[in-house]
Amino acid sequence: MQLLLLKIYNLKIIIMRNKLLSLLMLVFLFNFSNILIAQGLIVNTPLEKRIANSSFVVEGKVINKSCSWDSGFKSIYTINTVLVMNRIKGNVGNDTINIITPGGIIGFNKIVVFPSLKLSINDFGLFILSRESIVLDNESHNFKKYKPEYSRLSFIKYDLQNNSAFDDFNSYPDIERDLYGKMKSMKLKFENKLKIYGDQDIVPRSPNAVTISSFSPGTITAGTQTVLTINGSGFGSTQGSGKVEFRNADNGGSGYMEPIASEYVSWSNTQIKVEVPSGAGTGDIRVTDNGGSSDVSGSDLTVTYNLTNVSYSSEKYRINLVDADGSGGILFEFYTDFYNDANAMGAFTRALDSWRCSGGTGVYFEDGGSSTVDQAANDDVNVVRFDNGAELPSGVLGRTTNYYSGCGSPIKWFASEIDMVFNDVPGSSSYSWNFDEADGTTGSNQYDFESVSVHELGHAHQLGHVIDASQIMHYSIANGQEKRTLSSDDLDAGNDVLNFSSGVCGKPDMSTYVCSTQPLDLIYFEAGLESTAIKLNWGFDNIFDLDNVEVLKSLNGVDFKTVRTFAGNNKNKEFEYSDYSETPDNYYRLRYVDDEGNVKYSKIIYIFNEKIKYRNDINIYPNPAKDYVIIENDKGEKLFITLLNSDGRIIKKLGSVTRFDLSTLPEGVYFIKITTASESFVKKLYKINH
Q1: CA distance linking residue 180 with residue 131, whole number of Å
Q2: CB neighbours of 83 closer than 8 A, spacing ≥ 6?
Q3: Each residue of 139-172: b (16+ CB within 10 Å) or e?
Q4: For 371-504, where are the alpha helices, taking DSSP H only?
Q5: According to the 3-state scheme, what is the secondary structure of 416-439?
Q6: 211-306 and 521-608 have identical folds
Q7: How far apart are CA 553 and CA 533, in angstroms?
């Protein structure tokens, strides 16, 4: 039975508080059990299916965490070392295993992935896993790795003090009866009593030892360093191991999360002051004293919005949105198949405009046109794309990866790159995307792509989840549901981020995005190989709105440079440019600006210059080179040598030489064009100065 948008924090407490409410909730569940929910845009998958489709199921405890780059230094991963208590499915062999989750922090580099499983040391529970094939930097040859097959739904967390368990959608009030009973029906082998009980020092609870009498304010924001004051008695004169816990917005309040030490402002026997941490959501709060006694508030704290923070060196930091790439803010580029899908682009563009245009926050999220980049990686490209095969964990609809960089003293953090990946098959083969612009068009067998895009762009705006079904950033969405319109809380959150943000670490302030009332339309963009050059042609509508257009060129489809700028002259709707290319692979795109300063990008065009080829029987060495290069010609052909820069432009014609000096050239990438009596070809050269 699926759980739909409910505050089921602890079923026993809810029943004690209001038996009638519990009955109504159960009726609600019965009537709506055919609705699938996507949390953090994960589809709620039954436990039976999760276990059946995974290779390993174990019970265990997280005993250590560390972070590592992958072998290509494109992404950071967290290595969660888990002490295995019970092996339920599959043979993991060792007493400890390493579960790899996306995201983590190394030095001043931080990656945060929404959604993803985030574990803490001493977390207990059931892990549903598969083998992980990612190669980490400097890992040993016998380093066995596992991954959460169903992202956040791969972990069922145990509350051993109450003998209960929960995941993002499901509550198990009694572990042995409700969770073990379900697994017994699947004929899985396990011990009826957990070994991990023996590791716990269970403290008898006294319901009167800690008492929460009130808290203020009753409505607050999370991740903004805003202080909550909790009044009562029995808190203890000193904090010790005491703590305040808030409902976890990432799982709809099924469990609690707590601040870090630096977020506690003061602690006395009758009053606690604490900053509401990033990740906290609407719900009751729990105070536990140094001896282990606790009390839960009789009313809910309302958290209107929740902002993403970076935890670094025992402190929390807010994020700055800046002009990260010289576009004015964040320039999103779309992999070819996504860009060429008019339905997907239309829905995503509408989502972009919800945040950046009239009625939005003015965040500078720019459409950068098509891209040949087909990976979410730390590569200075803000890519938007569909996943490849089973790239996303099972049940994940969309994933946003935020890359952060820090610097200075005091430390400042900013979003340096943002990638988004959408599942090409949402939920399962039984479901499809709805791309329709009209409201109310999403069927029960569909997920609404625009709604999911607005949510993911909220994460890019540095917003975390909330527990409020009316909000875009609510932790869940259901099949057939549409949530496209930003609420006042969504807008307050986005504006809070922008008002806080400033230029840091050498990056300028983010510009304010203003949507043009009469959009400048690129009618066509074409290119072709002529006898002596590659010729580009393009034309605009609304030419009076054109300020300028730049021709950008790349030799690898990723690193583009401006090779020519044309000013808008209010006369010519059509333009042309001839590039006398000396390289075989040539990529072109246009960057055009309207009279209001809005920037747009064209698609990428690739042209192969068939007159220029690569050839393997003539070698250049050393490469990389510092002072000189030697050209080795086994066939004894007469060669004419030309040195080209990284754009494929001629630096110098060297003639018939077999060695030439490089010592005066700056470090970088160059090309050597070699011409024989019958053909021309190029070799790439790397110049170094050390």
Answers
A1: 24
A2: 60, 61, 63, 95, 96
A3: eeeeeebbbbbbbbbbbbbbbbeebbbbbbbbbb
A4: 449-460, 488-500
A5: EEEEEEECCCCCCCCCEEECCCCC
A6: yes
A7: 14
Name 166's Cβ contacts closer than 8 Å, sequence gap at least 6: 156, 157, 159, 172, 251, 254, 255
Looking at residue 370, its amino acid is: S
What CA–CA distance (Å, rounded) separates 335 from 327?
A: 18
User: Facing residues of 600 across strands?
Assistant: 592
Per the listing, tokens 């990389």 go with 624
Q: Are 625 and 686 in contact (CB under 8 A)?
A: yes
The stretch 510-527 carries a mean pLDDT of: 84
- Cβ neighbours of 516 (radius 10 Å): 15
Number of Cβ within 10 Å of residue 188's Cβ equals: 13
Pairing mode, if any, of strands 599-601 and 585-594? antiparallel
Q: Which residue has the tokens 């016998």?
A: 142
Contact 253, 301 (CB under 8 A): no
Q: What is the fold, at CATH topology level, of the domain defined by 211-306?
A: Immunoglobulin-like (2.60.40)
CATH number of this structure's domain 330-500: 3.40.390.10
The pLDDT value given to residue 141: 63
pLDDT digits (tens, 9 = 90+) for 434-473: 999 999 999 999 999 999 999 999 999 999 999 987 789 9
Q: Following DSSP, what letter does each residue of 270-301 receive, concatenated?
A: SEEEEEPPTTEEEEEEEEE-TTS-EEE-SSPB
Containing H/E element for 17?
helix 11-17
CATH 3.30.70 fits domain 36-199: no
Predicted confidence at residue 184, as pLDDT, reads 84
- Euclidean distance between the first and final Cα of the chain, in Å? 64
Q: How far apart are CA 86 and CA 57, in angstroms?
A: 9
Structural domain spans, the chain: 36-199, 211-306, 330-500, 521-608, 612-687
Which residue has 């007493």 as its token pair?
95
Q: What tokens appear for 49 in the block?
A: 């299916």
Q: Contact at 8 Å (CB) between 253 and 282?
A: yes
Would you say the C-alpha torsion 159, 165, 171, 174 has a positive or negative sign? Answer: negative
Tell me the CATH architecture of domain 521-608: Sandwich (2.60)
pLDDT at residue 202, as a whole number: 44
Amino acid at 213: S
The DSSP bridge partners found for residue 43 are 38
Provide the pLDDT for residue 94: 78
Cβ(532)–Cβ(551) under 8 Å? Answer: no
Q: What is the pTM of this model?
A: 0.75
For the ranges 16-30, 151-165, 301-315, 517-531, the lowest mean pLDDT is seen at 16-30
Superfamily of domain 612-687: Penicillin-binding protein Tp47, domain D (2.60.40.1270)
Residue 16 has pLDDT above 60, yes or no: no
